[in-house]
Amino acid sequence: MTEPSGRFSYEGLDRVIHEKARLGLLTSLATHPEGLVFADLKHLCGLTDGNLSRHLGVLQEAGLVEIRKGYARNRPQTVCCLTPSGRRRFLDYLAVLEQVVRDAASAAEPGLSTRPT
């Protein structure tokens, strides 16, 4: 049986999201719909201030995250959260990633079909 051309190209694996640190950031933000303070996000993802700022800039430029600067108890505070379109793109990305896992599992155990019918 011949596979269709491009069957395993996984076009939905968005390069902006696929980078390890950004995937971790988006996952953290997806699990905290109210958003996360910069320091908490930094801690959850194990990033430095500089790395976090750089990756958030990429995600913000792509329209995936919103960064709000304000004050809490008279101290500057940066809160990051997913945009509605960022949440949708992230969920679409996860759906493609789940297909990758199903395809890999199917190849690992050829007798099992995990592909949806």
SSE sequence, one letter per element: HHEHHEEH
**Euclidean distance between termini CA atoms:** 17 Å
CATH superfamily: Winged helix-like DNA-binding domain superfamily/Winged helix DNA-binding domain
Helix content: 40-55%
Q: Strand tally, please?
A: 3
Radius of gyration: 18 Å
* Strands side by side in the biggest sheet: 1-3-2
CATH class: Mainly Alpha
| CATH architecture heading | Orthogonal Bundle
Query: Treating each run of at least 4 consecutive H or I residues as one helix, how many helices?
Result: 5
Which term fits the overall shape? Answer: elongated
Low-confidence stretches: none
InterPro entries: ArsR-like_HTH, WH-like_DNA-bd_sf, WH_DNA-bd_dom, WH_DNA-bd_sf
Pfam family, one: HTH_34
Domain Winged helix DNA-binding: 22-101
Organism: Methylobacterium isbiliense
Provide the fold topology.
Blueprint: H1 15-18, H2 20-30, E1 36-37, H3 38-45, H4 49-61, E2 65-72, E3 75-82, H5 84-108
Antiparallel strand pairs: 1-3, 2-3
Question: What would your notes on this structure say?
Answer:
With 117 residues, the chain is α+β, with helices and mostly antiparallel strands. The chain is elongated. It is built from five helices and three strands. It has a single domain, classed as Arc Repressor Mutant, subunit A (Orthogonal Bundle). A hairpin with a 2-residue loop joins strand 2 and strand 3.
